[in-house]
Amino acid sequence: MTEHTYNLDNPTIQTLLNRRSIRAFADEPIPADVVDTLESVAQHAASSQYLNDWSAIRITDPEIAAKLAEIGRQPYIAQAPLLYVFILDEHRNATIAKAKGVDPDSDDFTLNGSYRYTQAQNDAVLALHAMETAAYSLGLGCVILGSLLNDVDALIDVLHLPKYTYPVLGLAIGKPAQDPALKPRLPKSVQFFENTYPEDSDDVLSAIADFDADVHRYYDLRNTDRPVDAFSDQIAQNATASMNGRSVNPPATRQGFRLDR
User: Fold this and answer.
1) Which CATH number covers residue 113?
2) Do the domain assignments include residue 152?
3) Which domain does 89 fall in, by range?
4) Which of 54, 90, 136, 252 could form a disulfide with 111 if both were Cys (CB 3.0 to 4.6 A apart)?
5) Edge-to-edge, what's the strand order for the sheet holding 141-145?
6) For the whole model, what pTM was predicted?
7) What is the mean pLDDT of each run of 10 residues along the chain (261 residues)?
């Protein structure tokens, strides 16, 4: 039997290893066939139980894009040639179930529970990541927009999201107009484990000390006049940062989800 050889320098791997968030885009539209291909790629991502419980809203209205930029507090959101908001979507499945005799407002309806909420969220993220990777492979640049969740209620209103839907992440795509450095990644020893989670944290802290130095040498193009804070300092700051009303439960409950079951 011929031993299989692996090309570890293939284009797919290089695309993923060179992934960088792009926040400045050339003022060039994305061709329709490229948009269609990116959306098809997203549809081919894995889907839990084949429920296809995610959707994506392509933003083409400049006024809506401007509102999203205001919510995200990032002007470049409105300047992206291609802009999506990915949502977990049990509304479509509720509609289908209702047509089959299931009452979505009854206790028998379980697609609004915490398990399906998390699985639908996973599906949306997988679809987004597939689209993002495909875009990078075509020479485009992307940035994932978690900032759109700064004000979930406002985002729900702007997008007219119906019951049993919830926004997950945004994705801005375009031809890069900047060339940021690759951001350092954690040492594999503190992120990949074998069989069980390690009990001893001393090795983690030792490795993080070296990683802190690497991160502190990195300059983010959003603030080029100073190096980025050390990774451990960023963690400490976020560990006590105010969430400013970003709890998932209240808006998710208003959208019809029951995260207590």
Assistant:
1) 3.40.109.10
2) yes
3) 11-181
4) 90
5) 54-58, 82-89, 165-174, 141-145
6) 0.93
7) 87 94 96 98 97 98 98 97 98 97 94 96 98 97 97 97 98 96 91 91 85 82 76 88 77 93 87
